[in-house]
Amino acid sequence: MEQYIMRGGQPLxxxxxxxxxxxxxxxxxxxxxxxxDDVILENLxxxxxxxxxxxxxxEIGVQVEYINKNTVKINGSHIDSMSIDYEFIRKxxxxxxxxxxxxxxYKESHVxxxxxxxxxxxxIDQHIKGFxxxxxxxxxxxxxxxxxxxxxxxxxxxxxxVSVGATINVMMAATMAEGNSIIENAAKEPHIVDVANxxxxxxxxxxxxxxxxxxxxxxEKLHGTEYxxxxxxxxxxxxxxxxxxxxxxxxxxxxxxxHLEAISAKLTEIGAVVEEYDDAVRVIGTKRLGSTHVKTxxxxxFPTDMxxxxxxxxxxxxxxxxxxxxxxxxxxxxxDELARMGAKIVVEGNTAIIDGVEGLSGVAVSAPDLRAGxxxxxxxxxxxxxxxxxQIEYIQRGYEDFEEKLRGxxxxxxxxxxxxxxxxxxxxxKVV
Length: 432
Ligand code: EPZ
Description:
Elements: E1 2-7, E2 13-17, H1 22-32, E3 38-42, H2 48-59, E4 63-68, E5 71-75, E6 83-84, H3 86-91, H4 97-106, E7 108-112, H5 125-133, E8 137-141, E9 144-148, E10 156-158, H6 164-175, E11 180-184, H7 190-201, E12 205-207, E13 213-217, E14 225-228, H8 233-245, E15 249-253, H9 261-269, E16 273-276, E17 280-284, E18 293-295, H10 307-315, E19 320-324, H11 334-340, E20 344-348, E21 351-355, E22 364-366, H12 370-382, E23 386-390, H13 393-396, H14 402-407, E24 412-417, H15 421-429
Helix pairs in contact: 1-2, 1-4, 1-7, 4-6, 5-6, 6-7, 8-12, 10-12
Bound molecules: ligand EPZ.
Ligand EPZ is lined by residues 23, 26, 94, 120, 122-127, 161, 163-166, 187, 304-305, 327-328, 370-371, 398.
């Protein structure tokens, strides 16, 4: 087990390059098995979730060849099982994308029922609703979801809840159904557009991804393709907040500025300077920032995956801010950790009332989940003194080369074993 140890107070300055989007890549990898041809996927983030999903795919007979750490060749022509073990879905929920991909191609799939996770119960009723609407039988027994279909027939599906996962999963199943499907009240995140574009590059016929109505003409077969994953809007947003939190000046490269609009708007509103270029944004946070209200919403609203980061930034800003989490029911667990650093936040239901403080103090804290873990590192880089963040395996799920990228823009941060007191002392005594 490892932890990050960092010394705050150093403004982050310089350039950082964003990796491929984890939440797009997970859908793309599952969709890649829907053809028997070779598929080359580039700009994959080298993070734990991607590695786990590739292992799950290999377990069922998918051939996976790493061309380099960010490029894989996938071949789904020798799949010999439709059943994904619990060990994989326990590690990453997104293994459930194989439900839709296998059902679409083989008219059968079995995946362990995903549990809840650190941010809420996370049901999959909308995924099941879509599969059933297309003609699949869906049974849940002994913790497994089993889907089978004589035929999948295109139909009109209205999502009761705007769901990223359900939209991607049902879109994949409908891609190879007979006839036309319409998915209404679809999620509009950039990663849904990425999966639709990817499937279309394989010969699918999907229109409207990125809007709340997706129209799909089913096709019998998909062919191979070469495709590059879009940049990760949440990794980019995290570094934008870090630049602002440390009163730094950072150019965040390899981004699609349009995907960052809600984040850029909020940072500008509280006083940061955000400059947009073709494939980069520059964030300058030289002065103390102000307060605001944030409500997380489906895209293009403010992303729930940026909620811990913006709340942590507001905890160090001037004035009282309100952050409302409208997507998940339990995404404020990091507040207790921040309070140990001196933050003044009261959580009532799905709303956090934040009284900004002049500065935070470095202490040992624990990452409760992926995005909150990144937010605690941000707090440590802005705080006075030395901060230790443990449970960093959460952070490594979704941030490639996290500490290396941070050191590249001036952060004084290291990764050390959790129980290595000598390494802690050495870091604390290091003369800066
Ligand atoms: C995806 O999760 C992301 N994960 C999450 O990112 C992200 O927070 C979330 O979308 C929202 O943007 C991946 O893409 C792998 P949802 P997903 O289905 O698809 C309810 C991260 O940090 N719902 O859009 O599971 C659900 O309870 C992770 O990278 C149903 O009620 O999210 C939630 O309240 C964390 N029934 C809301 O919809 C369903 O069948 C949105 O969930 C499905 C979802």
